[in-house]
Write a structure and sequence with these properties.
The complex is a heterodimer of chains A (280) and B (300). Chain A is an all-alpha fold and 280 residues long. Chain A has two domains: 52 residues, no CATH class; 169 residues, MetI-like (MetI-like fold). Chain A contains 15 helices and no strands. The radius of gyration of chain A is 24 Å and the shape is globular. The relative contact order of chain A is 0.13. In chain B, helix 2 crosses helix 14, helix 3 packs antiparallel against helix 11 and helix 13 packs antiparallel against helix 14. Chain B is globular, with a radius of gyration of 25 Å. Chain B contains 14 helices and two strands. With 300 residues, chain B is mainly alpha-helical. The chains are: A mainly alpha (280), B mainly alpha (300).
Chain lengths: 280, 300
């Protein structure tokens, strides 16, 4: 509450401050704990759990990650899937958004309502059938198998339609008078104006694809086709025994770091994208 | 056929109905129909058949649904899902609202703290569960260590049937807190400042300002946050699967995990499809409520 505050630190202020600090600690402590563990030797941890609070800290766990090739394959898979889905979504959504917002064709309004209804369909309702269809098409354990379902998401179309509608019509009408083709108007005049929406939708799609767990888990069952999220989950099962806590934690930090850095740079877009997707 | 319906406009005017214009939406519609609409109806069709991975067997009518509602594990998973929603949604909404009220300031500290409370939202479920399993793990877990300082033993959150779902809920709240906070923040920022100035002139107390102005202004957002979270948390899967495998004794097995188990581990696709239709109806009800609330803007 920025407005209507008195200047003095009242009792209420102190309670709020204390609560915020407590919540911050709850928020931070688990992450810091994991980072600290990732720099510890496994044998030392087993002998004395409290050894996490004092040196020696080692980077051996991270060296071991570089040594095991699986993680890099998974990162590559995640990159291919996330970039593929992001590019595909941007292209399809921009074209469809322009079509729904600006052009007239028979059945347009009914189609748009049907597409909006698609927003309400949860993944789980189509999952079983999708899996069977992809089995028949032999799409499982392929990149297209992981990417394609995401292209049917209606959110991007909805977002781009709203955005195109907000652009003044005079712009494309002027271009039309110059006898520019419809695609040229879309490509040269309107598309550059949608850049903020493209960024929002792009980051949202990329993040969602990168973090997706359910569909890749079902579709990619071969180890070399795992995405990073699925691959990391598959190594978690034999927790403390084989690889050691420190190694697993190093993996978590290693996998989380790129997304965290992206978050630091694109925070504003990410927050807009995530909140926008939720409210629709 | 283009110019017939709209004689006022030139044939390629953007407002005259023209089949060629549909080419812009056709690529998306192809994926929409093949990967969403068709599977939706195929799934309903499957739920009335005995089916495996590649083919669908004989028509069994409501057989799958009858089996479903006679399956104690399914009924338990429905109960578990509601319990989980009850544990997470109110907590998420209340903490999110509190944080939004406390951090709605243009100071640097507030900005940093907002980022802090949102950062976990960008992590994948795998990393979140890895972090929280290490919090709860006996002996060198964070919780065990903190309890150890006071000479106490931490409760066995993940393996105790009474606590396992609470452990899953705690990890989930930590993961999902950012969204409700941001939604409340954007609602707070839309309240016109002059209302607060008027209140200040009237010497209204902070509590009175909060209860008479702030909270009533974000009523609709509060309802939206609740429904968005219900829809999200209803789809619980990754946390439960990775932290507890649905155990002990299925107490943390939600509906989606039941679907996963039935369809993709026991390959009973008909039964899995039936379960997913039940989930669909439940989520649809919540989504309809969201639609109604977000359309009724004058109700603010």
């Amino acid at each position: 509450m920025s407005s209507g505050l008195s200047n003095s630190r009242s009792f209420g202020d102190r309670v709020i401050l204390a609560l915020v600090i407590a919540l911050s600690i709850v928020m931070l402590a688990p992450a810091l704990w994991v980072i600290a563990l990732s720099f510890k030797d496994n044998a030392e941890l087993m002998a004395n759990p409290n050894s996490v609070f004092h040196p020696p800290y080692i980077i051996q766990n991270y060296i071991n990650i570089v040594g095991t090739s699986a993680v890099f394959r998974w990162i590559l898979n995640s990159l291919i899937v996330s970039i593929g889905l992001t590019v595909g979504t941007l292209v399809l959504s921009s074209l469809a958004g322009y079509g729904f917002a600006r052009l007239n064709f028979p059945g347009r309004d009914i189609l748009f309502v049907v597409v909006l209804f698609g927003l309400a369909v949860p993944e789980q309702a189509v999952l079983v059938a999708r899996h069977q269809i992809f089995s028949i098409l032999k799409f499982h354990n392929t990149y297209q198998g992981i990417i394609l379902p995401g292209l049917s998401s209606a959110f991007g179309v909805f977002l781009m339609t709203q955005y195109f509608r907000a652009i003044p019509k005079e712009l494309d009408e002027a271009a039309m008078l110059d006898n520019a083709s419809r695609f040229r108007v879309f490509w040269k005049v309107l598309l550059p104006l949608t850049l903020p929406a493209q960024a929002t939708l792009g980051i949202f799609t990329f993040l969602g694809a990168w973090n997706d767990y359910f569909w890749p888990l079902i579709s990619a069952t071969k180890k070399e086709m795992f995405t990073l999220t699925v691959g990391m989950a598959s190594t978690q099962t034999n927790f403390a025994q084989s690889e050691g806590i420190g190694y697993l934690m190093a993996q978590a930090v290693f996998a989380g770091a790129p997304i965290f850095i992206v978050y630091l740079f694109f925070q504003k877009y990410i927050v807009t994208a995530v909140s926008g997707a939720a409210v629709r | 056929m283009t110019a017939v319906q709209a004689p006022r406009k030139p044939s390629h005017g953007p407002h005259s109905p023209d089949w060629k214009n549909a080419l812009f939406v056709a690529p998306y519609l192809f994926f929409f129909v093949t990967l969403l609409v068709f599977p939706l109806f195929w799934g309903i069709w499957l739920s009335f058949h005995k089916a495996d991975t590649f083919s669908s067997g004989p028509f069994v009518g409501f057989g799958n649904y009858v089996r479903l509602f006679n399956d104690k594990v399914f009924l338990q998973s429905v109960g578990n899902t509601f319990y989980f929603v009850l544990l997470t949604v109110p907590t998420l909404a209340l903490i999110g609202l509190f944080l939004a009220l406390a951090l709605n300031a243009r100071t640097r500290t507030a900005t940093v703290l907002r980022s802090l409370f949102f950062f976990s939202s960008v992590l994948s479920v795998t990393i979140v569960t890895l972090i929280w399993r290490i919090v709860f793990i006996p002996q060198f877990g964070l919780l065990a260590t903190v309890y150890g300082w006071f000479g106490a033993t931490a409760p066995a959150f993940v393996s105790d049937p009474n606590l396992a779902m609470i452990a899953v809920a705690m990890a989930t709240i930590w993961w999902c807190l950012g969204l409700p906070m941001m939604l409340f923040l954007s609602a707070l920022q839309q309240i016109p400042g002059d209302i607060y100035e008027a209140a200040a002139l009237d010497n209204a107390s902070r509590w009175r300002t909060l209860t008479a102005i702030t909270l009533p202004s974000i009523k609709r957002t509060f309802a939206l946050v609740i429904i968005i979270q219900i829809v999200l948390q209803f789809q619980l899967f990754g946390q439960a699967w990775l932290m507890t495998r649905g155990g002990p004794n299925n107490v943390t097995k939600p509906i989606v995990l039941y679907i996963y188990d039935t369809a993709f581990r026991r390959w009973d696709l008909g039964l899995g499809a039936a379960a997913s239709e039940v989930l669909f109806v439940l989520i649809l009800l919540a989504a309809m409520a969201q639609y109604l609330i977000s359309r009724r803007k004058e109700d603010l």
